[in-house]
Amino acid sequence: SVAYFNGRFVDSRDPVVPIDERGHQFGDGVYEVIRIYNNKPFMLEEHLDRLYMSAEAIALPFREARESFKAVIFELISRSNLTDLDVYVQITRGMAARNHLFPDCPVSISMTAKPFRSISAELREKGAKTILHPDERWTNCYIKSLNLLPNILAKQKAHEQGCLEAILHRDGKITEGTSSNVFVVKGGRVQTTPLSRHILAGITRMAVQRVAAELGVDFQEKYVDLQELYEADELFITSTTSEIMPVVQVDGKTIGIGEPGPVTRLLQKHYKKRTE
Ligand code: PDD
After folding, report:
1. Which PANTHER family does the record cross-reference, listed alphabetically (predicted)?
2. Catalytic residues
3. Which atom of ligand 1 is nearest to the CA of 242?
């Protein structure tokens, strides 16, 4: 599939990144995953705002003008010959002999374009199982950094137990999923973890907030503890790639009636409209 590296369109399997690159030696970079529905990037401006914010937060000198950067994304989409795809964008501190100190070199920009990696319709219909896992990450999870080791370890653990996601908790409260935000529905009210340094400000989370406002569904930012999680009427997770995904089990315990609930379904329906 088509990819991009520092000014060139390449094949995603081409060996274009040298060994001495900060991205794979240090995880010294930031990224975004953007979904394109029928040739239209979904909430592109919000993704770019977050990318520039993440870069700034790690003092990465990413000075590419927004319009020219967008032009590269659109050219990648066009070259992919796909209409529905996921674009991965990564900015690193560049190519320099390994040294912890910041190098004096240009940043590296890479992108890939891949067909949707979607959750099966069957699982979406049934709802997902999840596990709980301590949040072992650092305290700057609002930055979409390449350092994902705690995330992948927890997600793999979930997978090995037949689950889709690991829901992370810190100090007795839910933070987020390893690659998603977590929402509880209680008494018709949608609740999710307040934004802080401990979670990523999900773009899908933002979309859910907007959809809820449109529908007059009560949306509340609130710390949810483990007891409240188990006692939820409905539970769902959100991300660019999983959209709004119902959750029906946590650590083997059934949530609500054990199937996707009416508020989740309503939000899903209206979210889908925004992607059309
Ligand atoms: N992950 N929290 C974490 C830790 C994430 O990695 C993600 C997204 C989200 C949801 O954010 P958004 O709605 O903007 O996709 C929350 C992406 C999809 C990934 O790593 O593949």
Report:
1. AMINO-ACID AMINOTRANSFERASE, D-ALANINE AMINOTRANSFERASE
2. 144
3. 18
